[in-house]
Amino acid sequence: MFFTAPMRYIKLIILDKDFQKTIDLLADFGWIEIKKNEEEKNLNLLSINEKIDKIEGIISEIHDFFDIKKSQKDGNLTDLEKIEEYFNNLFLKIKSYKEEIISLKEKKFELEKSINEIEQYKDLNITKNELDKFNFIHYTIGSSSQSDIEKLKNNMKGRLLYVEISKDLYLLITSKKGKWTLDSELKKINYKERSLNIENFLLPKKIYNKLTEESNILNNKLNKLNHIKKDILKKEFKLITKMTENFNLQKVYLDIFKKINHSGSTTIIEGWILKEKVVTMTEKLKEILGPCLAIVTYKPEEIEDVQKGKIKVPVNINNYWIFKPFEELIFNYGAPKYGTLDPTVIFAVTFLFLFGFMFGDIGQGLTIFLIGLILKIKKTKKLQNIAKIMQYAGISAMIFGYIYGSIFCFEQIHQIFTPINSFLFNLNRPYIINTSLTSGFDVVFNLVFITIGIGLFMNLFGILINIINNFLHNKYQEALFSRNGISGFILLLSIIILFINSLTFKFNINVFFLYLILLSIILILLKEPLYNIITHHKPLFHGGVGFWILHSIVELIEIILVTISNNLSFIRVSAFAITHALLSYIIIEISLKIGFFGFLIIIIGNAIIIGLEGLIVSIQTLRLEYYEFFSKFFVDKGIKFLPFKIEKNK
Length: 650
Prior knowledge:
Layout: E1 7-15, H1 19-29, E2 32-34, H2 43-66, H3 80-119, H4 128-133, E3 137-143, H5 146-156, E4 161-166, E5 169-175, H6 179-186, E6 192-193, H7 204-258, E7 261-263, E8 266-274, H8 278-289, E9 293-298, H9 304-307, E10 314-315, H10 325-333, H11 344-358, H12 362-378, H13 384-404, E11 406-407, E12 410-411, H14 414-425, H15 441-472, H16 476-481, H17 486-504, H18 511-525, H19 527-535, H20 545-568, H21 571-594, H22 598-629, E13 639-640
Parallel strand pairs: 10-13
Antiparallel strand pairs: 1-8, 1-9, 2-8, 3-5, 3-6, 4-5, 7-8, 11-12
Helix pairs in contact: 1-8, 2-3, 2-7, 3-7, 11-13, 11-22, 12-13, 15-17, 15-21, 17-18, 21-22
C-alpha cells in the first residue's frame, strides 16, 4: 500500500497451437502486460491478414444488407474457421436476394425518375405526334409564372395561345411566322423551356398510368423480398452479433500474435506481471496446457535493459478501497517511479484537508456529497471515481463547516453550534476557528499564518518522501545534500521551528536554528565536492571550480526563491477560505435587505458558490498538490502498468 507494487518479468514458451487459448486465459486473468514488438513480415502472417480482411469485408456486406449496426464488443474464443464458415454460408444464402433487391431498386429509381418527369404533362390531352403534325404552328412547353405569361400575351398582341398544363407549366402556341417574335419575348421574362419526353403516339396520362403500374409491381416485389430479409434477420440476428463479437476478439488475439516472438512451432509471450499474481497465473496455465509449457520469471533488476535504463519497470499502486479514487488523480500527474513510495494516501488526506479548509460549509458540503452519491448510484463507469471524491470532499467541507460554524452561508448560529461546542470542547461560542469577517483583521492574519504552516509541513513531508525514494534507489548524493534531501529537510525544519517560535514567543529568534539554516545552505552548495570526498571520487569539481562557483550562486538564488514561493503559495488557501466567508456574508446581507424574497437570493447564491467556487477550489487544491507538493519527490517519473484484459460479452 505504501510502496509501488513489486513486479516480475515473465517469459512463457508455448506451442503455436496453444496460443489462442493461452491468450484467452491471459485476457480473462487481466494481470499481465504483454510486450509487443514490431509486426513480423512473413508469408504466414500475410495470409492471416488476407483472411481477416476477407471475413471483415463479408461481415460488413451482411450488416449493410440487413441495415444493422456492427457490434464493437469482444465476444468469446471461437475458431476463425468456424467464424469464416458461418459468415460465408450466410452470405451465400442472402446473395441472390441482395442482387435482386439491388436490381429492383435500380429499376425503381429509373421508373420514379420517369414518373416525376411525365407527371407534369399528364393533364395534356394531346400526343407529341399530333402536335408535330401541324405545319403552320410553332409550339413550346416551359415553366413560368402566371404574371409573366399574361405580360407575354399582351406583348404578342393576339398572336399567342397558351394552355396551362399544370401549375406554372404552359403550352405556348403561335404561328410559324410568329416564332422569332415569341423567342425574342421569352428572353425578356423568366421562362424555362421543358422537353416533351413522352412517347409520340400515347397520351401523357396513359404513359403516366403505365409507369405507375410498373412501379407498383416493383414495390410489391421489393416488399416480398424485404419480408424474406426480415425473416432471415429474425432467425440469424443473435448469431450474427455473437459471431461478429467473436471475430472482434480474434482480431485482437491475432494482432498480438503478429507482434510477439515466434521460434519454429513455439511462441514466446513476454511481459510484466504483479509478483503476487505469478503463482495464480502459473497454476491456471498448467491447468489448460499441462506439460506443454515453460515459464521463467525475473526480478526487474535481473533484466539487462532495466539495468541499462533502456526500459522502465511499469508501476502499479494498490490501495484500500477508500483511497482508490485518488489513484486516478495521481496518474493524471504521472506514475511514480518503480520501487518508490506510493503517495496516494498522503495525497488523499491533504487534498481533502485543503478542500475542506477552503470550502467549509455544512449545507454546501452536504449538497456536494449528495451530488456525488447520485452520480455513484447511476453507475456511470467513467464518473465513479469523481463521484466518490465528491462524496469525500463533501464530508470534508461539512467537517470544516462545523469548525467554522457555517451552514448554507449562515455563520455563527449560536442556537445550533454553541451548545454542541460547549458540551464537546467546553467552548462557549458557535465556532472552533473564527472565519467571520465581522470579527476584524485578526481573523485574516490568523488564517494566513495557519495556511503558511500547512504549506511548510506539506513541503517538509514532500522532502521526506524524496529522501526515502533516493535512498531506495541508492542516490545518496541527492538524498544527503540536495535541496530536496536531508540538507533541505533540515533547512525547512529549522524555518518551521523558527516560525512556531516567533508566534509563541513574540518574535524572539533562536540563534541555533539560524546556524542550522546557514549550515544546510552550505551543505547544499557543497553537494558535489562533499560527496566526491566521501566516495573518494575525483575530480572534486566535475566542471571545474569556476563552473561550480557560478552554479552555486545560481543555486543559492534558486533555494531562496523556491523556498519562499513554495511555502507562500499556500496563502491562497487562506485567501479562498476568506473569499468563501465573504461571499457567504454578502449573500446573507442581500437576502436580509430584500425581505420576503430573500430566500431566493440564498438559494441562487448557494448554487453559485457550490458550482463556481467549488470548481475553482478543486482546481486550486490540485495545483498546490501537483506544483508545490509533488514537485519535491516526483523528479523521475515512471510508466503506468497497463495489463492486458478484455471485458467479454457474457
